[in-house]
Structures are given as structure tokens and as C-alpha cells.
Amino acid sequence: MPFSVPVALPQAWLFEALALLFFALVLVAARRRQREAGGSRDSRSRWGIIIQGLSFPVTALGPVYARLRWLDPAAIGGYAAVLLLMGGALALFARSSAALGKNWSIVARTREDHELVRTGPYARVRHPIYLAILLVLLAMAVAIGHWLQLVVALPLFFMGTRMRTDAEERLLEQSFGETFRDYRSSTPSIIPKIGRVA
């Protein structure tokens, strides 16, 4: 059963504006991508995309109670949380997609000239773009006051993400062998370790 906590309407507006900016960054990254023959592709990752994507409508399910005054302390805290989460998501996606360059793709695939990127955000986590998407999901829950829906949405998100990362990592292991296995054993998948990078 959907459950909502009261929010101020500008929380939702702020999220919507920043989510459009996030979507624009995805389109820019997609336009930069070069088509090529050869390489390998794993279309099973599409199922992961679908399941991961379902976490967003599940989070959105139910009414939004825009009952807080715009300058209520709880509303100001909500604005700050949305800005922090979405700012992190935007910065992480922009840096990650730039680091990947021509390797970036929506569906799991490797190119004939694929490179194993281990710099920038990839020095901290193997899949920083999925961390960015997780931050967007959390920002959405804050913006519209749908915390309880995360009980269902987060397992869906992580199930879909696992399907995508497994597909990507199979391809990377085929291409890079021991080099990728060393990277996988030393670098967390999505949630970075607190502290220094080894």
C-alpha cells in the first residue's frame, strides 16, 4: 500500500528539473557513442534495464502530499537532500561517462578496441553510473515523500543492477582476463569503501 510523508511542492519541482538535466546528460553520452562492427554484446542486460527501471514507477506509486509550507524547516531539509543527492548523481554520471568515452553503452557490450577504465570514479567503484542512478532513485523518494515504497523499489533496483553488472563483467572478463579479475577483487561494485583508495 502506498505511503507518503508531507513535502513542499518545490521539492518535486527541484527533482523534476534536475532529473531532466540528468536525462540530458544521458542523451549527450549516447550521442558521443560511436557505432562499430565487431566486439561482443550481451542482450541479457536488457532484462536488467527493465527491472532496474521498474524501481522508479514503484517509488512514484501513490499520492504526493504537498502540505508543507515552502520555508518550513522540514521542506528546507528536503530541498537540501534533493540537491545533495541529485548533485552527486549528476557529477558522478558526467565524470563516469566522460571517463568511459567511446566505451559507454546502455546495453552491455565491449568494442574491438575496448579499454578497461580504472581512473576517475572507476578507481573507487566498478559501476559508478549505477551508483548515480541509485542516487536519482533516492532523490525521487525524498522529493515526493515516498519512503515506504523503497522497501519494494530498492530490491528491484538491486536485482536489475545485478543482472546488468553480471552481464558487463562477463564480457570484461572475456576481454581482459586476469587484469579484470584483479580489478574486480580490489574495487567494490557500486558502493565505495570509506577511506583511501588502495
Summarize the structure.
The protein has 198 residues and is mostly helical.
User: Which structural class should the secondary elements be placed in?
Assistant: mainly alpha
Count all strands and give the number.
2
Number of helices: 6
Largest sheet: 2 strands, antiparallel
Q: H/E order of the elements?
A: HEHHEHHH
Strand order of the largest sheet: 1-2
pLDDT below 50 for ≥5 consecutive residues: which ranges? none
Mean pLDDT: 90
Total domains:
1
The quaternary organization reads as single chain
First and last CA, distance: 44 Å
Percent range of helical residues: 55-70%
CATH architecture descriptor text: Up-down Bundle
CATH topology: Four Helix Bundle (Hemerythrin (Met), subunit A)
Task: Name the features.
198 residues, two-stranded antiparallel ribbon, 2% strand, Four Helix Bundle (Hemerythrin (Met), subunit A)
